[in-house]
């Protein structure tokens, strides 16, 4: 073992030992950013970067299990990404499908898709549906896989779903306008029934949400990490939790 690895291990254990599990966020959202830049820096291909990023997911979920996190939302593919040239998009979709299959096969986590299925190719839709069905009764961390996801699209879909729901009951637009509120819209989000994210982590140094969970993150804390996603380490994760626990959360101010 290299001295650097030994020192890193000791430091990680020290951070973990000092972590107050009562202050751990119950829902963490993660923007997995930096796969391509990590690959370029390592002299590899874009596909190799995405594969390394996909392999990192199970490590993250293992750390979440150890620290009592209950829900994790992983942004794997945005609606904007769907506009990429086919020779870039198709390999990425295959890697994402493989990652989702691996999560379902692991047996420890309950997979739930968040995003617009209709925007995705039929094969990707099938993989997401099968993973969700296969893990429906798993009593473990809920893993929201955000594929074909956009925050504005989610809000538009929620409003559309709300309107259709009430139209099917015979509610008029005037009647609906009198009673519609924040809670009613929230009931039609992709994450309905789940707690909002307490903490949102973005890797690679970018300091913006890019439309991630716009509705749900109104009161979230944000942690921006300089490390590219494939190089994200347990100590980086623990630092994010430590930083979160040290903040005094103020709702609405």
Automatic annotation (TrEMBL):
InterPro entries: UPP_synth-like, UPP_synth-like_CS, UPP_synth-like_sf. The active site is at 33, 81 (proton acceptor). Substrate binds at residues 34-38, 50, 78-80, 84, 202, 208-210. It comes from the Bacteria. Binds 2 magnesium ions per subunit. The keyword Magnesium applies. This is Isoprenyl transferase. It comes from Streptomyces buecherae.
